[in-house]
Amino acid sequence: MFIKELRLIQNDKFALLLIFILPTMIMATMYIATNPSPITVIPETGKSPDAWRVGVVDQDPTNTFPSQDLSENFTWYMSNSMDLIVTIFEDEVDALDALYFDRVSAYIVIPYGFEGNITGDIPAFIDVHISSTDLTAQMEIAGTVSEVVAEFRTDHGWSQREISTQRFAEFQPPGGGGFEATFGVFMIVFAVFIAVAATAAQAIVGDVPLNRMLLTPATKMEAVIAKVCAYFVVGMLQTQFLLILWQLLFNIDAWGAYHILNFVLALMSFSGASLGVLISTVVTTRLQANQSFLFLLFGSVIVGTGFIDVGLVDDYFPLNLGRVMMTDTAFKGVDILEFADSIYIIVVMSLIFMFIAWLIFARKKTLA
C-alpha cells in the first residue's frame, strides 16, 4: 500500500508540482521578510523608496527658546528623515481630509505650548494620527516618528523624555475598535472568499452523478452556472454568521452599513464560487482539488493581505479589491458607488472564471 501511494503521487504531476511550489512560496516570503532590499534613494524626493507621506500641522506659536523655533526645528528633523516625506498643512481639518483620501498615511500635530513646555521642563506631546484601517502604517510610522524624536532630543542634549508621542487611530467604527475591528473585517472578507472557493473546488471533480446527468439535455454551461449559484448561496449564509458574530463578540457597531457590507461580501462569495468551480474543472482528482485549495490559501495570504506591494494583483484580484472596499465602507463611510470600477472588475473577473471553467469542462469526456 505504501508503494502504491508513492506511485499515485508520482503519477499525479499536478499534485507533485504543488508539493514543491507551496514550500517554495513560504520560504521565499520568509527570505524577503528577513532580507530586505538595500536602501536606495529616489532622485525626485531624495528619500527611500518605502518613505511614508505624512502631514505636519504646527499649532505652536510660542517663542520661549532662544534663537530657534523648536516646532519648526522639529518639523525640519522629520523632513530630513529618509523614511518620511513631509507635507505642511495649515490646520488639522485639511490634514484629516488628506488622510481620508490617502494623500498622506498619517499626520502629526505639534500642539500649542510645545516649545514652552520643553523650555519649562514640562513634557511636550505631539499627536500622531494614523488611519485604523492601515495596520502597516500604524506599526512603521509610529516607529519612524519615535526615531525622529530620539534624534531631536539627542541633538539638543535632552535626555529626560521632554517629548513624548500620543497616537490616535482615526476612522474606527462606533462601539469598538482596535485590532479586533481592523483585522476582523479583513478576516471576514478573507474567510468568505477562501471558504467558498475551497468548498467549490470539488464541485465538479467530486460529483460522480454529474456524468449521468449530462446524458440528459442539460448542458455543461448550465452545470457550471448552477454550481456557482449554489455555492454563492452557501457563501451568503456564511456571511450572515460572520458579520453578526464579529459585531456581537467585539462590540462593533456597523449595523448602519450592514447592507453595504453584505453587498461587498456577496461579491466575494460570487468570485470565490467562480474561482472554486474553475479549479474543480482544472483538476482531475480530489487530491488535486485539496492541494489546489492549499495553494490558493497560501497564495492569498501572501498577495491578499496588503502587507506587500503586489502590483497588478491589487488592481484585479477580487480578494484585494474586496478588502479595500470593506474597510473603506465600514470604517470611513465611503459610498459604495465610489467603488463602481472595482465592482465592475470583480464581476468581470468572476464571469471570466466561469467562462474558462466552461471551456475546460466542455473539452472533458469524463469528470475524473
Which stretches are low in confidence, meaning pLDDT under 50 for 5 or more residues running? none
What's the end-to-end separation, in Å? Answer: 22 Å
- SSE string, helices as H and strands as E: HHEHEHEHEHEHHHHHHHH
Strands of the largest sheet, in order across it? 2-1-3-4-5
- Residue share in helix: 55-70%
Shape: elongated
**Average predicted local confidence, pLDDT:** 80
Largest sheet properties:
5 strands, mixed
Number of strands: 5
Number of domains: 2
Strand content: 5-15%
Alpha-beta content class: alpha/beta
User: Number of helix segments?
Assistant: 14
Computed CA radius of gyration, to the nearest angstrom:
26 Å
Give your account of this protein's structure.
This protein has 368 residues and is α/β, with parallel strands linked by helices. The chain folds into 2 domains: 52-170, abc type-2 transporter like fold (3-Layer(aba) Sandwich), CATH 3.40.1710.10; 176-363, no CATH class. 61% of the residues lie in helices and 9% in strands. The chain is built from 14 helices and 5 strands. The chain has helices at residues 2-11, 13-34, 70-80, 92-100, 114-119, 135-155, 179-200, 209-213, 220-250, 258-282, 286-304, 312-316, 318-332, 340-363, and strands at 52-58, 84-89, 106-110, 124-131, 163-170. A 5-stranded mixed beta sheet has the order 2-1-3-4-5, with helices on both faces. α2 packs parallel to α11 (286-304) and α9 crosses α10 (258-282). The chain is elongated and about 90 Å long.
